[in-house]
Every structure is written in structure tokens, then in C-alpha cells.
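Just curious. Invent one:
>
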Amino acid sequence: MSGRKPIDVYKLYYSNHISFYFYRMEPQQPELEITKDNKNSSRLRLLFKIAFICNICFLICMVMRYSSAPKYLPQPIIELSIILGWSAILVNVVSFVMALILISRIRTRKIPLWLLYTNIVFFIAQFYFFFILHD
């Protein structure tokens, strides 16, 4: 060893004093393996997001039921919100059963807590509407 420190940047000087920098290539990191744990938690997150979308459609259904909003909304939006809104309770049940089976994903914060709490509030409202409230 001649006592020189390793150089990360090499400079090449030309006669007109324009310098070019050549950086050393860093060794590439191996790609992260997709484990079964990550795959299950991403599916659970997706299921909770779908449940949230269905819950929003359920809220739209309730607004349409007790107001004159269907007169002003386009027909495809009404149909989509009815289909997703009425099926929201089923999607919520499936997502909560999966969350109970995979409870460790909630503890490790792989599912956002605001999404979990929002779905719980909507589920309670849907349970009240479907099973307790009789119009």
C-alpha cells in the first residue's frame, strides 16, 4: 500500500480544463424476496381498501334513499353505488374475518389504523341499518 486513500470519483482533465466525472458503480443490491407474509398482508390491505370503497358507496346509497339526489345523478353512478353499497356488509364481514385470522398484520401496522377504524364504524352503521332499523 502506498498510503493512498480509495477515490470514489475519478477526474479526467483535458487541455482546456474541462473535467468529466466518472462515478464508480455500486454493487447492486439483490431484489427483496416476496415472502408469503408480505403477499398475505398486501392482499389484506387490498381487501380493506375495497371494503372502504364499498362503504363510501353505501353512504351514497343512504343519501340517495333519504333525499332527492337520484334525480340529479347519472344512472351509471346510481347503479354502481347501489351494487357496491348493498354488498358492502358482505365485504366488511370477509375483511374482518381475514383480519382476525391474520391479526399479526394489524399489530405490525401493515394495515393503516385509520382504514381499520373507518371500516369498523361503517360496519356498525351497516349492521344497524340492515338488522335493527326496520322502515
